[in-house]
Design goal:
Elements lengths: L1 H9 L2 H25 L11 H4 L5 H21 L4 H16 L3 H10 L7 H20 L4 H24 L9
Helix pairs in contact: 2-4, 5-8, 6-8, 7-8
């Protein structure tokens, strides 16, 4: 079954469109190198992330996401028996989830303001993260669970401190 599945994927229009977009991003990086250095050298893994997220159509983005998801699913199925892979995948998933508040923290820092941000939302994030982390600690879950929960709580607290720091001159709207 697996060779047919791989053969099916290799002819997939989803992967074809995704590879076209990646090829464009690599060619764009090569063109920039030619303009900058006066010569062209193409590296197969050369990718300019400045152009990667500039999709020409939302459908192309969705197709790339679908193709990437299928690729990840196939890799996961192939490596499911590897304890190292499973632990690494789980830890990465937890760390990505722990970083969900980081873009808000950085945006607040860049703007030196929390204008437009819902403080209630951050308070609910914090409450959820505290309850979740407490549950992990009390049930003696593996360390990565409570470590990532602690990172989430720390980010939430920093965001709440930004609310206090950046809104000293005006009353804070809690909604």
């Amino acid at each position: 079954i697996l060779p047919r599945f791989t053969l099916f994927l290799s002819g997939s229009p989803v992967l074809h469109l995704s590879s076209d977009h990646l090829t464009f991003a690599c060619k764009q990086a090569d063109a920039e190198r030619t303009l900058t250095h006066g010569f062209s050298v193409f590296f197969p893994l050369d990718l300019n992330f400045q152009y990667f997220w500039k999709w020409s159509a939302f459908e192309d983005y969705l197709l790339f996401c679908f193709g990437f998801t299928v690729l990840c699913a196939v890799v996961t199925l192939l490596l499911l028996d590897s304890a190292v892979f499973v632990e690494t995948l789980g830890s990465l998933a937890l760390m990505f989830e722990a970083m969900l508040g980081l873009p808000q923290l950085l945006q607040n820092f860049d703007n030196r303001s929390t204008k437009g941000m819902s403080v209630k939302m951050v308070l609910l994030w914090t409450a959820g993260d505290v309850f979740k982390t407490t549950y992990f600690v009390m049930n003696e879950s593996p360390a990565q669970f409570w470590v990532c929960g602690s990172v989430q709580i720390m980010i939430d607290v920093f965001i709440l401190l930004q609310v206090l720091l950046y809104n000293q001159d005006s009353r804070v709207k809690l909604g």
